[in-house]
Write the structure tokens for this entry.
Amino acid sequence: MRVERIARNKVRIFISYEDLEKRGIDRNELWKNGRKVQELFWDMMETAYEQTGFEIVGPVSIEAFTMPTEGVVVIVTRVPALPMHNRSENADEEEDFDEEEDYGLADDGDSGNSLSLFALSPVFRFDDMEDAIRAAHAMISNPPVSTVYKYQGVYYVTLEESELTRDEFESAAAALLEYGEKTSMTDAFLFEYAELLLDGNGLAQLAKIFPLS
């Protein structure tokens, strides 16, 4: 495995087919987001941190390019989950790097396939269950697709951003941030190690189970 940092918020990771085989992963499994693929992802992130200092903070976008003989190229990009005051600055920075990047992929696709691997959902933290309940009631008229977890006495809510329009996501995130805070915890970690409390329509269920007095 080899890692190159190509922007402040982006790394490129090279994985050989031999490395995948040693991990018991068939190249076709990369697009299924199974347990082995998630383990591979965290190994990649650990290696990226050790080699380049790249660290996941919030959601990321991930693309994987399969090459005929060399292996797989994975591009990991940190993306803002919410509009920030410095977002235009980040966009300008990414644009500068994009002008210089060449991933070595032929336009006709002979070099392989470009596919989305998986992306991490934004995660919000609530130190007190009461705060999570208040947040759930704040959006009871239009509850987003969400999941509620508990880990080490702290409550976490993940949003399925792909199921929401941009306006819906921003509205839901604003309500959650009023009572909780954004965290670098990932949904993949919570899925693996946290206690699942409410799934699918977690916030709607939370508001229904615990009415405000």
